[in-house]
Structure to design on (977 residues):
């Protein structure tokens, strides 16, 4: 087969190129021709088509995402913001944390096990490429209805993929979400988060400076995995005609990834890395163009030097391959022997494939012929930008007008509580989280089912002083709220994650997000997206927590039916003395139970309306961010003063579920008295509320602290006994709560 | 006297080595990193084979590790009386290396399981359990996909008759192990393997609730001091 070289392209200007098959529009192709002053070669077209895909270029979302920067609150903690592989925040005592959440939705539908596994692998490499040791993962998962047939195919595969990959890597899985809704039946959401730890002065960036420096590809060899996966899978919906493209899912090797982690950390410690980039979507195309664009500006690469698992691969395929467990580093020539020795120690293959130049061009050769000669920034940074049209969905007003007021209120609140507690969304997720290692590395302070995962900051890094600090993480989202009001829904997702971090005693510091939506070409979906981004950016400003990075996943739709808009928000917080962490739930007998925050009759999008009436309408609870911030300050201050013995946030299912979960945590009952309408008090989902348990003598201090921050504080009762008792309303033995809570998922999934 | 030196082995794919080293340090021992490719036990007084997925465990768990250069040293030293503890993948490796009888197969549930498990220490008569009382019940985490202990009926009968079952699951068997066996020892009692993870139950703040796993580490230190 002859090679489509630059020389050949120059003399065959009119040769038709398959840009449409690669997902490129005519005007985008015309721009490539304009940039190059000729037609692109096949290899150049491969690079531009993947780099300019929705997945890599954010062409539909960019104009909106800018608000995360323009509205960003001032933060002393932010060390690296959006635009790098992951954001980095200062957590004190010379330590920094880096974290990011990313979607692997489409691959996880096609091949649940490998799709989810490589989702974990990809985000872990993002964290590694910042110079950090990955220290934990979390997963935010959404599936179709729990009783739908395809959910029984997708869920066990996804859980097994995460379990196998994450467990083999030796990263504790410390939390996340599992949500069921029929809207996700053809489009499950698999959002994987990873957090890493590094010394503040050891941040690595994706850059290739210094002409003469070597470009090293290391890790797994390159095979025909996921060729076109990024552009084909992530940018196209599952119409029947795309079935032929389905085997494009990558296959993961967690053992190689574990070796890569240890190898990279040793390379960093030896200071033999100038710049580094992981190979994810768009593989070598992405790594070379981005490294070159952020460095001195030029790079020469000999593609024949790329180690191949399949020797028949063409250069276009090598460029687009998404083989997993690969990294690219820029290394000073004098450091190459040391670099190679470390790779050899860890049995990690490493190959010099090129060199940094100052030509401003990315030049690649194949069999001695130049097949790529482009300005790298045009592929990496100057992709198309679309201002997609958007408007409010035609049914939105009717949806909001159909409030839950018309729904019949229950008379038997005990039965209602048990039905909700056993419903798939509120039932115990032990069936899932019991398949994840939450203990490895011995720094896990809190993990599922705690409100947030928490880790002790303790890594053996030379020169690092011991610290008492810990970090907390939570991811939250609510597609039903966002469907009713995407602006408020995104804010509520942030508010819940913020609250979940604060109830453990940690101070919320920074945000990552994964924005899961339908097709951006649908103006109604685009409206949902625009509203959600606007809401999230506004809320971040008010709460003082900047967005450090994240990911957009579009085209989560089957035919013309999109998923509920689902912004998933991750919040990272820091606790100065990790020994002061507040466990979730009632930790002992004889504690005073208090409800912090105001309860209003808010049932739009609630679990009660969903489970008992299959209803979705009206408006979600009010997102009162000032109240949220006040509550957060009370919780963090109270924890630091040692006032709280236990706590729990109020969210899905309201106070009733929070009380039940608090009792189940350690098998300690409680006796509480409600003053208002019991149904509203128990099942409303008003935000900015938390349940706390304090020693009786600490109650006055807590009440005083609440008053200082204008946070309502209601004494509800005391802990103790073997039942949850709501005076005059219901009484359920804790054992019965547990049985109801535990039975659902095993019954569904075996 | 100087602290007891406990070697902690790292194969490619070992995961709980840092955890084991921390636990050794916590009880006043000195953890000594041992590398799979070396033929050097560095004069350690005891060896801890931690959990993980050595060499990826793409073949049978532990099947490749037993051929590591370091393992040859460990096998001959163990036969000569060196105390060796293997947890999880370490237990699998000790079985593959024939230092312990039986084998660990896929969990009966076919799922990986991570949970806090009630177990009973059946014998205090080993280098690694002398700090416990026989019959004492404790909580240790288990986390594995292939922890179902199997052996032929004669071997099982012999293990039971000679007091070589060291740890037994109580209150529910997490993986379908025969006779609820969680851990066994060799005839001499210097080599012990178990699926649960004592190194994840040594601090109140982190890991499994409680500190029930500390006994494994205090046992070996006591044994080495007494020796």
């Amino acid at each position: 087969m002859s090679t489509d070289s630059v020389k050949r392209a120059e003399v065959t200007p009119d040769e038709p190129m398959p840009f449409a098959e690669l997902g490129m529009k005519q005007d985008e192709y015309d721009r490539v021709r304009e940039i190059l002053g000729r037609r692109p070669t096949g290899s150049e077209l491969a690079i531009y088509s993947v780099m300019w895909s929705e997945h890599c270029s954010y062409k539909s979302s960019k104009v909106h995402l800018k608000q995360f920067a323009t509205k960003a609150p001032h933060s002393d903690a932010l060390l690296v913001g959006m635009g790098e592989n992951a954001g980095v925040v200062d957590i004190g005592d010379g330590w920094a944390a880096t974290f990011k959440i990313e979607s692997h939705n489409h691959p996880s539908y096609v091949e649940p096990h490998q799709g989810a596994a490589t989702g974990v692998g990809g985000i872990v490499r993002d964290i590694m490429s910042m110079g950090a040791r990955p220290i934990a993962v979390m997963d935010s998962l959404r599936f179709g209805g729990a009783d739908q047939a395809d959910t029984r195919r997708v869920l066990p595969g996804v859980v097994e993929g995460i379990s196998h990959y994450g467990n083999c890597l030796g990263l504790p899985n410390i939390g996340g979400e599992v949500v069921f809704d029929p809207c996700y039946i053809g489009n499950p959401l698999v959002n994987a988060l990873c957090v890493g730890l590094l010394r503040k002065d050891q941040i690595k960036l994706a850059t290739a400076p210094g002409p003469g420096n070597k470009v090293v590809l290391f890790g797994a060899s390159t095979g025909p995995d996921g060729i076109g996966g990024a552009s084909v899978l992530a940018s196209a919906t599952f119409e029947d005609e795309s079935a032929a493209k389905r085997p494009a899912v990558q296959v993961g090797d967690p053992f190689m990834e574990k070796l890569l982690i240890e190898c990279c950390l040793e390379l960093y410690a030896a200071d033999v890395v100038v710049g580094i980039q992981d190979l994810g979507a768009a593989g070598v195309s992405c790594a070379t163009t981005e490294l070159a664009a952020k460095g001195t500006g030029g790079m020469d690469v000999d593609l024949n030097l790329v180690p191949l698992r399949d020797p028949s691969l063409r250069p276009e395929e090598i460029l687009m391959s998404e083989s997993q467990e690969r990294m690219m580093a820029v290394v000073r020539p004098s450091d190459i022997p040391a670099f190679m020795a470390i790779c050899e120690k860890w049995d990690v293959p490493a190959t010099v494939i090129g060199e940094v130049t100052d030509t401003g061009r990315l030049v690649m050769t194949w069999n001695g012929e130049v097949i790529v000669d482009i300005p790298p920034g045009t592929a990496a940074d100057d992709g198309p930008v679309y201002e997609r049209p958007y408007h409010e969905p035609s049914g939105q007003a009717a949806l909001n007008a159909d409030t839950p007021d018309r729904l019949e209120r229950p008379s038997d609140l005990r039965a209602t509580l048990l039905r909700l507690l056993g419903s798939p969304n509120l039932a115990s997720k032990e069936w899932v989280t019991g398949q994840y290692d939450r203990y490895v590395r011995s720094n896990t302070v809190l993990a599922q089912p705690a409100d947030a995962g928490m880790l002790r900051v303790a890594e053996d890094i030379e020169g690092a002083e011991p610290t008492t600090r810990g970090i907390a993480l939570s991811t939250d989202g609510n597609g039903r709220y966002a469907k009713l009001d995407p602006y408020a829904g995104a804010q509520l997702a942030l508010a819940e994650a913020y609250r979940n971090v604060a109830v453990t005693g940690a101070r919320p510091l920074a945000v990552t997000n994964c924005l899961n939506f339908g097709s951006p070409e649908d103006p109604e979906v685009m409206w949902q997206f625009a509203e959600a981004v606007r809401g999230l950016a506004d809320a971040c400003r008010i709460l003082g927590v900047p967005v450090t990075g994240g990911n957009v996943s579009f085209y989560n739709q089957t035919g013309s039916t999109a998923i509920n808009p689902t912004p998933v928000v991750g919040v990272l917080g820091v606790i100065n003395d990790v020994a002061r962490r507040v466990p979730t739930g009632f930790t002992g007998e004889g504690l005073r139970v208090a409800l912090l925050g105001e309860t209003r009759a808010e049932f739009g999008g609630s679990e009660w309306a969903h489970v008992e009436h299959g209803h979705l309408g009206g408006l979600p609870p009010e997102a009162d961010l000032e109240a949220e911030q006040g509550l957060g300050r009370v919780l963090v201050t109270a924890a630091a003063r040692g006032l709280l013995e236990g706590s729990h946030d109020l969210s899905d299912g309201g106070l009733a579920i929070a009380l039940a979960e608090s009792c189940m945590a350690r098998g300690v009952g409680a006796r509480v008295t409600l003053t208002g309408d019991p149904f509203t008090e128990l099942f409303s989902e008003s935000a900015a509320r938390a349940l706390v348990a304090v020693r009786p003598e600490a109650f006055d201090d807590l009440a005083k602290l609440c008053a200082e921050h204008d946070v309502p504080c209601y004494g509800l009762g005391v802990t103790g006994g073997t039942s949850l008792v709501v005076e005059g309303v219901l009484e359920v033995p804790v054992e019965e709560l547990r049985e109801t809570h535990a039975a659902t998922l095993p019954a569904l999934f075996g | 006297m100087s602290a007891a030196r406990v070697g902690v082995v790292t194969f490619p794919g070992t995961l709980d080595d840092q955890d084991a080293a921390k636990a050794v340090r916590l009880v006043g021992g000195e953890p000594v990193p041992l590398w799979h490719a070396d033929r050097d036990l560095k004069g350690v007084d005891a060896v801890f084979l931690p959990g993980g997925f050595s060499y990826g465990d793409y073949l049978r768990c532990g099947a490749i590790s037993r051929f590591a250069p370091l393992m040859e040293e460990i096998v001959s030293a163990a036969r000569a009386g060196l105390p060796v503890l293997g947890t999880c993948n370490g237990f699998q490796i000790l079985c593959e290396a024939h230092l312990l009888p039986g084998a660990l197969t896929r969990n009966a549930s076919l799922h990986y399981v991570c949970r806090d498990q009630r177990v009973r220490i059946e014998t205090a008569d080993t280098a690694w359990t002398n700090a416990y009382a026989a019959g004492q019940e404790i909580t240790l985490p288990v986390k594995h996909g292939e922890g179902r202990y199997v052996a032929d009926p004669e071997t099982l009968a012999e293990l039971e008759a000679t007091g070589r079952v060291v740890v037994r699951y109580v209150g529910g068997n997490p993986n379908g192990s025969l006779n609820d066996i969680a851990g066994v020892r060799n005839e001499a009692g210097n080599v012990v393997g178990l699926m649960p993870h004592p190194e994840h139950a040594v601090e109140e703040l982190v890991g499994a609730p409680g500190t029930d796993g500390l006994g494994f580490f205090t046992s070996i230190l006591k044994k080495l001091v007494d020796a």
About this structure: Chain B touches chain A at residues 12-13, 15-16, 18-19, 22-23, 52-53, 55-58, 111-115, 141, 143, 145, 197, 199-200, 203, 205-208 (CB under 8 Å). The two ends of chain B are 13 Å apart (CA to CA). The longest strand of chain B covers residues 113-121.
